[in-house]
């Protein structure tokens, strides 16, 4: 998968050299490139923002550098002549990012993350890109970050680990929280007793049926306790 990131802080993305995604990059499974939006400015001050039409606090990112950046990055596919990229714009005003969306995006060939700062990006950037490709404004949750960089990193990790070959043992993906709509069961390892706390005896029983039933019960109880919204959706 190819991932392009457009940001005024490309240095945020140096962490993608580390750990499993770092390995996926060096093995060629993931081709990730962070670009400085200011490369597509033409004035002496490399201006990317301006005051909002209609008034209000804060600054809005101007459309011109974004337009040029996307023109360059949304390269046409040799067969169709159209770009097959999906543009993802992290925003607290977007649709919720979920494991289902991560799975869907992990099937794509090319993702372009457009990281806004300040009060966001001029809406015409998204509207214009949507005439050519799929554009998704996506929120990590109901809170506000300073910009799209941290949100993009979280999404790239969630998506990247679902690409076949990135995680050594794909079975480890199957029993995680959210994969079956529930939170995952609690996990234990050795020693069987630690600081007066014992591992639940059923896990030492060797009875696979009883272990599976206990884990399912734990998933339901935990989900009911901390995320009842997942059961009612
Ligand atoms: N940018 C600012 N806040 C955000 C959020 N909650 N999710 C995604 N992108 C954001």
TrEMBL record:
Gene Ontology biological-process entries: tRNA N1-guanine methylation
Localization (cell): Cytoplasm
UniProt keyword annotations, A-Z: Cytoplasm, Methyltransferase, S-adenosyl-L-methionine, Transferase, tRNA processing
Keyword S-adenosyl-L-methionine: yes
Domain annotation tRNA methyltransferase TRMD/TRM10-type: ranges: 1-232
Catalytic activity: guanosine(37) in tRNA + S-adenosyl-L-methionine = N(1)-methylguanosine(37) in tRNA + S-adenosyl-L-homocysteine + H(+)
A molecular-function term among this protein's GO annotations: tRNA (guanine(37)-N1)-methyltransferase activity
Record keyword Cell inner membrane present: no
SUPFAM superfamilies attached to this UniProt entry: alpha/beta knot
Endpoints of the signal sequence: none
Listed EC numbers: 2.1.1.228
Any matching Pfam family: tRNA_m1G_MT
Record: residues binding S-adenosyl-L-methionine: 116, 140-145
InterPro entries (UniProt xref): Alpha/beta_knot_MTases (IPR029028), tRNA_m1G_MeTrfase_C_sf (IPR023148), tRNA_m1G_MeTrfase_TrmD (IPR002649), tRNA_m1G_MTases_N (IPR029026), tRNA_MeTrfase_TRMD/TRM10 (IPR016009)
CC terms in the record's Gene Ontology section: cytosol
NCBIfam families, per the entry: PRK00026.1, trmD
Job description of the protein: Specifically methylates guanosine-37 in various tRNAs.
Protein family (similarity comment): Belongs to the RNA methyltransferase TrmD family.
Subunit annotation: Homodimer.
Annotated protein name in UniProt: tRNA (guanine-N(1)-)-methyltransferase
Native organism: Naasia lichenicola
